[in-house]
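seq:
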Amino acid sequence: MATNTLPVRAGTTDATHGTGRLRVLVVDDSADLRDLICTLLEAEYQLHVVGRASDGTEALAMVAELQPDLVLSDLNMPKMDGLALTAIVTRHFPAVTVVLMSGDDSPNIRAEGAACGAHAFIHKPKLSRELAATLKQICVAGSAGNA
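struct:
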């Protein structure tokens, strides 16, 4: 499998490996999809998945502990949904980029995500196509913002 090379986000440091790879927390209540996304991020994009969470409450604790660069989160989850997670993370951890994923691609859902502070939105049925573009956008924006 060929890998996609992403620009390294300026100021990003991988405390565990010192590689400068983007540190990602993946949040989805589907264990199978969560595992698939993590495998894709690590194998295809050479990113460092620092954590996996099954709901927003678990993810919030992990954000505080792991301080990822990126939170890739499902929208609909038990306990705390992706919108609430996004609002809290972007308010209390402004250096963390949040990308929401959902099977619902309605303009209202996208608008709600943006209003909560999501940096991008990925329609789950188009995950493989939209993920690369979203990651490149995040890395380039992070590099420009930290230059």
